[in-house]
Design a protein that fits this description.
heterodimer; A: about 500 residues; alpha/beta; seven-stranded mixed β-sheet; four-stranded antiparallel β-sheet; 17 helices; 15 strands; about 35% helix; about 10% strand; globular; B: about 450 residues; 13 helices; 13 strands
């Protein structure tokens, strides 16, 4: 159980021990062990009528606290995280997550309040949300904000319901049945369109990595709901004909949705509201430093132009003339409720704290540094790998391992070899339009020496692909596990443990 | 301000920036921004300037101090979000940086901590609910309900969804909003009329214990659903399953619920945990990520995200849901909570809620004019009817720093809702009873004087 394997320290190349695998809770279980966190209440058993009582067994593991603590600590140690090293996942903005944000979100005044409390007992929380709405509106150049969506995809679905309400009010919802997405779009865009009952039309990209204007215009018509566009796009490129694109969609009576996954390039650089977008979501777990939590929670506030404001989900936070804050009444045209309560408040507190810490200059500096770091890294890597679209990038860029593929080494092999070099791999095989894609986003919080070490590792792997491709294909050798068999995992699903015995 | 960063988390010195610019071959970042329309470049935003960490801490503490935490006095608000005891070890483990600051486990070789912890969550919940498969989380209980309806629509090819009016109104309202997407028909009927409305429906959605705390006989509802080719969706509460027959034993095809009571702070309603479970036969219709066990190239056991051909990053518009970012950390938190509590601790917490609710109900119904608003047995919360409007009584209690919920959970049933858990203290209960006594007596006198 405590066997030790080795891992390489990136900057120095030193090999060091890491903990190995951990048994399952069901394997640690010993019948008869229990903690004493809560006790009593035995009289409850007779208060529940016989017919409702649990007869099914309840074979949860029995483990005492010291073992539980070691178990989850060992599990944590098997993870790579921003707190342990550079995590250059493209489109994910794995920047440093400040600790003060976590401490503030844990204050009893924020963590121990219930969403059904009356407004006068949560004035501080309402003020925070009101101010956050204002900060996000100013930053995006939009008129109104809902903080409710739990994630980017949730905001996409919410926005498409707003679009539906907008078209419905104009009397042409029935004929508007298609949503346009570029072929470089995140998978959530077409999936959200389908959830909204719409068909999806995919438009290709042009030779410079923009959405192809001619194809877009050909795809537009009076049956189009709108366009979902990420800018900078998933190639890390700013759309060169953005205003023409937005104008064309508007002329067809459609609306333009901004997927804000790449907002970390735009803080103080440009406001989506000035560029033609009708709305944009913000992934605060990307741009505003809230931790990704191993897959979530995030939060996806949706910022909209005035024409969409009447349809926003309720409630929204308003400020009264006496300076008090409240959850406003339901607007008559609101699409309704999109979740139980008012947003991932604990995440929003962290985002507010971050924005307050950095202020206008700090946020602008963050985007500036993110853009500089990406272009610097691109300059260090461009000789070893193919560049998908060769023009200045924003905060991320996409390489192709096509050259390495001819040597027998795939993009995935490069990714796994990076693990042995001590780095988390970039996003691979996305966007779909770039073969053997390696999508790299360094963020503004990696020091230059780490960027240099990452580039050196990437270049070493490119060299090994030429001279010793089989060693690259055998990676990782220094991770807790070698490559996992995903095919049999899907073919013979084993989705839970056997009961503890 | 040479040498001083505006972003305190930036590691870049001016020398670093100069070296990076030089390597890129430019003098300024603006040379990289030529694709941006000139008139839109570098706008003034009108945001405040930055603060030091101590200033931020003080500012945010002052905002936090303007909120009334549950622990600051008698507190009986509950429902989908509950004040539960969180063992000290839970946040210590779940908020470790290696969990907190990791991404979705796309690279399983360096994400085994997340993957195994989520696999443990799936296993623990599967046992608790007696369901075959549990996914790695939805946003919250309400979106889990909506996604369950969508899944039932996919599985049956029908577009009519029937939901009990005694399901949490927040869940029903969210379902109604979601239903506008694919244009589903949603019918809300009293729980006792669910079975009669099964014909032609994709699913019947029942909550047990219901939003008022009443125990519901789920079996005949599940049977009626199955008899007409529909699915039975049960909205459940995690602690109730320690004492009550679980959804899998009652005939539910999908079990959903709010997982916040499993060690997650209330945090004004989020981030929380949408529980989503189903039967093995339906797993390929399920939304959300699922972790499965496999082997690595050396034959060692390991865990991966699996059955991904259901998901948006592979299937795009044909995916079972658009969900990407989920609530994985909440799932890990719930796993740590259940591991620490064990079956004994979980039962004790559930029993405390039941015992305290019943003791309190006896005391409150001894007050003249006060009655339990439901007929049958209840679990750990109940609705109390008095001669006052629920909202009026709620506000009167709040003036005495006793917080309860009112009857807004249901359009036709007025009263106050009282939720008990293991956190409900004796002094709090005494405070509630004496305040209700005093306030309702005052109201009765006022009526008599008229």
């Amino acid at each position: 159980m405590t066997a030790i394997r080795t891992q390489v320290v990136p900057e120095s190349g030193v090999k060091t021990a890491v903990p190995a695998l951990e048994p399952l809770l069901s394997e640690i279980h010993q019948a008869g062990r229990a903690g004493r966190h809560v006790r009593g209440g035995e009289e409850a058993d007779t208060l529940i009528p016989q017919q409702f009582r649990r007869r099914a067994s309840l074979d949860l593991p029995e483990i005492t606290e010291p073992q539980v603590v070691r178990h989850f600590t060992h599990l944590a140690q098997l993870n790579y995280a921003v707190d342990t090293g550079m995590y250059p996942l493209g489109s994910c903005t794995m920047k440093y997550n400040p600790k003060v944000n976590d401490r503030i979100a844990s204050l009893a005044g924020f963590a121990d309040i219930h969403p059904r409390q009356d407004d006068d007992t949560i004035q501080g929380a309402l003020r925070l949300m009101f101010e956050l709405q204002d900060l996000l509106a100013k930053l995006t150049g939009m008129d109104a904000v809902t903080l409710q969506p739990a994630a980017g995809a949730h905001a996409e679905f919410t926005a498409l319901l707003l679009f539906k309400a907008h078209h419905s009010k104009r009397g042409d919802d029935a004929k508007r049945r298609r949503v346009i997405v570029p072929d470089s779009a995140h998978g959530t865009n077409p999936a959200s369109a389908a959830m909204s009952g719409y068909a999806v039309t995919t438009v290709k990209s042009d030779a410079r990595g923009n959405i192809d204007l001619t194809s877009l215009k050909a795809a537009l018509g009076d049956d189009v709901v709108g366009l979902m566009l990420t800018n900078p796009n998933t190639l890390g490129l700013f759309e060169e004909h953005l205003r023409e694109v937005c104008d064309a969609v508007h002329q067809a009576g459609g609306l333009v949705y901004g997927d804000g996954a790449n907002m970390n390039a735009l803080l103080g650089v440009a406001r989506p509201g000035d560029l033609g977008f009708d709305c944009i979501h913000i992934n605060v777990h990307k741009t505003f430093s809230t931790p990704h939590g191993a897959g979530g929670p995030g939060a996806g506030p949706l910022c909209v132009k005035a024409k969409l404001e009447p349809f926003l989900p309720h409630p929204r936070i308003t400020k009264d003339s006496d300076g008090s804050y409240r959850r406003g009444p339901t607007p008559p045209e609101s699409i309704g409720r999109i979740r139980s309560f008012f947003g991932n408040f604990g995440v929003l507190v962290r985002a507010y704290t971050y924005m307050t810490t950095l202020g206008e200059e700090g946020l602008a500096e963050a985007s500036n540094d993110a853009i500089l770091a990406a272009n610097y890294l691109l300059a260090l890597l461009r000789d070893s790998y193919d560049v998908a679209f060769d023009r200045p990038c924003m905060h991320e860029f996409v390489l192709s391992a096509s050259r390495q593929k001819k040597q027998g080494v795939s993009g995935l092999d490069v990714a796994k070899a990076l693990i042995d070099e001590g780095f988390h791999p970039p996003t691979v095989y996305f966007p779909l339009i770039v073969p053997e894609a390696l999508m790299i986003e360094p963020t503004e919080t990696e020091p230059r020496e780490t960027l240099d070490a990452f580039a050196a590792a990437m270049n070493r792997i490119a060299e090994r692909a030429k001279t010793d491709p089989s060693s690259v294909k055998a990676a990782p050798q220094h991770a807790p596990l070698a490559r996992l068999d995903e095919v049999s995992a899907a073919r013979y699903p084993k989705l839970k443990w056997l009961r503890p015995t | 301000m040479s040498g001083t960063n505006s972003n305190p988390y930036s590691p870049h010195t001016d020398a670093d920036r100069a070296a990076m610019l030089k390597r890129v071959g430019i003098k300024s970042v603006d040379e990289l921004l030529t694709a941006i329309p000139r008139d839109a470049l570098r706008p003034r935003l009108g945001l405040p300037t930055g603060m030091s960490e101590i200033e931020v801490q003080v500012h945010l503490e002052s905002l936090a101090a303007k909120n009334r935490p549950a622990a600051a006095g008698p507190f009986f608000i509950g429902g989908p979000v509950q004040r539960r005891y969180i063992p000290a070890a839970v946040p210590v483990l779940a908020l470790r940086g290696e969990f907190l600051t990791a991404y979705t486990p796309y690279q399983p070789e360096v994400s085994q901590g997340t993957l195994q912890a989520v696999f443990e969550y799936q296993s623990l919940l599967s046992e608790l609910l007696a369901m075959d498969v549990v996914n790695s989380s939805m946003y919250d209980g309400s979106t889990a309900v909506a996604e369950a309806a969508f899944m039932a629509v996919r599985a049956t090819g029908r577009k009519k969804v029937v939901i009990a009016r005694e399901v949490y109104y927040q869940f029903r309202a969210t379902l109604e909003t979601y239903a506008k997407g694919p244009d589903l028909e949603v019918f809300a009927v009293p729980t006792d009329q669910l079975a009669a409305n099964a014909g032609g429906s994709a699913c019947l959605i029942v909550q047990h214990p219901d939003s008022f705390g009443a125990l519901v006989d789920v079996r005949p509802i599940a049977e009626a659903a199955h008899a007409s080719g529909a699915l039975c969706v049960q909205v459940t509460e995690p602690h109730a399953n320690a004492l009550l027959e679980p959804p899998g034993a009652l005939g539910a095809d999908i079990a959903v619920g709010e997982g916040q009571p499993l060690g997650i702070p209330m945090s004004l309603g989020g981030p929380h945990l949408g529980i989503f479970a189903t039967r093995e036969a339906l797993v390929r219709q399920m939304p959300g990520r699922i972790v499965g066990e496999t082997r690595d190239a050396r034959g060692t056991r390991g865990f991966v995200n699996t059955l991904q051909t259901r998901e948006q990053h592979i299937r795009r518009e044909k995916a079972t849901s658009n969900i990407c970012t989920n609530e994985a950390l909440a799932a890990i938190t719930a796993a740590a909570y259940l591991a620490l509590m064990g079956p004994t601790g979980l039962r004790a917490a559930a029993r405390n809620g039941v015992a305290k609710a019943h003791a309190l109900a006896s005391r409150l119904t001894a007050i003249p004019g006060c009655a339990i608003a439901m007929d049958g047995p209840f679990f750990d919360r109940f609705q109390l009817r008095t001669q006052m409007r629920g909202r009026e009584l709620k506000h009167a209690l709040a003036k005495e720093n006793v917080l309860v919920d009112d009857g807004l959970h249901h359009e036709d049933r007025d009263g106050i809702l009282i939720q008990c858990t293991e956190m409900t203290g004796e002094e709090e209960a005494n405070a509630l009873v004496s305040a209700v006594q005093r306030i309702t007596a005052g109201a009765r006198e006022a009526v008599a004087a008229r």
